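=== RUN LOG ===
request id: a7f3
mode: sequence -> structure
chains: 1
length: 85
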Amino acid sequence: MQIDHIDENMVRVTKTSALTGKRNTMRIPLRQGEIENWLESNMLVQDAFPWIAADVREFLISGITPDEWDNTFSFTAISLDAEEA
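=== RESULT ===
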């Protein structure tokens, strides 16, 4: 994980996706020290950052972006009823 300070209370995090192996980047409204403290602790991400959206917390854990998650785990509902001929 690479953390770059952008502005006060804003960092750019780059992390490799556990799904695709692609390096993804996300801007996150946290301070660099907050993320570093979380990484060094045994805290769950949802306990460390309860105010951050779940998809952003998932990115911090796995590097998976919301688009990658949707593309991988979304599905189209299909009808299981056989059409009568």
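=== NOTES ===
Residues 17 and 64 are 5 Å apart (CA to CA).
The mean pLDDT is 90.
=== END ===
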